[in-house]
Specification:
By secondary structure, the chain is an all-beta fold. It contains no helices and 8 strands. A hairpin with a 2-residue loop joins strand 6 and strand 7.
């Protein structure tokens, strides 16, 4: 599967701009680019569709996984299993 960024319409979600490369696909995992504005917050969520992979390309972000807060920095990676809670 090849997906061009120009073919993706971003979704705005509480201060996050999400480019979902796997939207509408029936896959076991998903890939998206998420642009986070300073001060943006994401309500607790979970994925019913797939596992999620987060790689921080730049900056620093607070990521909560199953109620435990972590500080992610440039180059850090987080794996979220399907159904696992995160914000």
């Amino acid at each position: 599967m090849l997906v061009s960024r120009s073919s993706i319409s971003p979704v705005d979600f509480d201060g996050l701009r999400i480019f979902d490369y796997t939207a509408g696909q029936s896959l076991g995992s998903s890939v998206a680019v998420i642009e986070v504005e300073p001060g943006a917050r994401h309500a607790e969520a979970w994925s019913r569709r797939s596992d999620k992979y987060y790689l921080l390309n730049s900056g620093e972000i607070r990521f909560v996984l199953d109620g435990e807060a972590h500080t992610m920095k440039t180059g850090d990676f987080c794996f979220v299993k399907k159904g696992q809670r995160f914000s």
